[in-house]
Design a protein that fits this description.
212 residues, alpha/beta, 40% helix, globular, transferase, kinase, Adenylate kinase
Length: 212
């Protein structure tokens, strides 16, 4: 994917535009965070939010449903292609707000599986499995689906997958004891290169061992 940067160098330096993926196990707060980022950032930036699940559904990228797990089976290869088309369109579009920094937030637990050579940061939201369990129960997830997601969270599956693809671009935040405003502040600092939260510092393995 080739993304054109603004030619107005006095207002925006080359490579200032941002592509940020927000991922994590279902229930960790991705959508709430993305909505807050939209309400805050859209005032000062040329802002776009891409909800990866909606993108898959709206473009008929669902190959079926896993009857045992209750998940939509998404064609990741087609999703990857569509996502890059959406990002290309946003960053190459000329409009009256071209003097503003462009930020695209891609939200969803499949986002880190997509290939995007221009992505700046991947942010994985983590959550204590005990807290996550109550959230997933409130969504009426099946016991099987709850356990599968709790196990994935304890093992840090999203972080591992993201790191395997994107390396040190990946940050992870333990949101267990944070308010949404505190999470927003950490994410803002990551986006603008003020802080890093490298993968590997969050450990929920006690849940697997029955310690929580």
């Amino acid at each position: 994917m080739k993304i054109m940067k603004s030619s107005n160098k006095e207002k925006i330096k080359e490579n200032d535009n941002k592509i940020i993926f927000i991922t994590g196990t279902p229930g960790t707060g991705k959508t709430t965070l993305a909505n807050l980022l939209e309400s805050k950032f859209s005032k000062n930036y040329n802002f776009q939010i891409v909800k990866i699940n909606d993108l898959a559904i709206e473009n008929n990228l669902i190959d079926g449903v896993d009857s045992d797990k209750g998940y939509n089976i998404v064609n990741v290869q087609k999703l990857d292609k569509k996502l890059n088309e959406v990002l290309d369109s946003f960053f190459n579009e000329k409009d009256l707000n071209d003097s503003k920094l462009k930020i695209s937030i891609v939200e969803g637990h499949l986002s880190h599986l997509c290939n995007c050579e221009n992505v700046d940061k991947i942010i994985v939201l983590r959550l204590n499995p005990k807290i996550l369990e109550s959230r997933l129960k409130s969504r009426n997830y099946s016991e099987y689906k709850i356990h599968e997601n709790l196990e994935a969270e304890a093992l840090g599956v999203c972080s591992v997958e993201a790191y395997q693809k994107y390396g040190t671009k990946v940050n992870e935040i333990d949101t267990s004891d944070l308010s949404i405003k505190e999470v927003f502040k950490f994410v803002e600092d990551i986006i603008f290169n003020k802080k890093d939260f490298p993968v590997g510092n969050i450990d929920f393995m006690k849940w697997i061992l029955g310690g929580y």
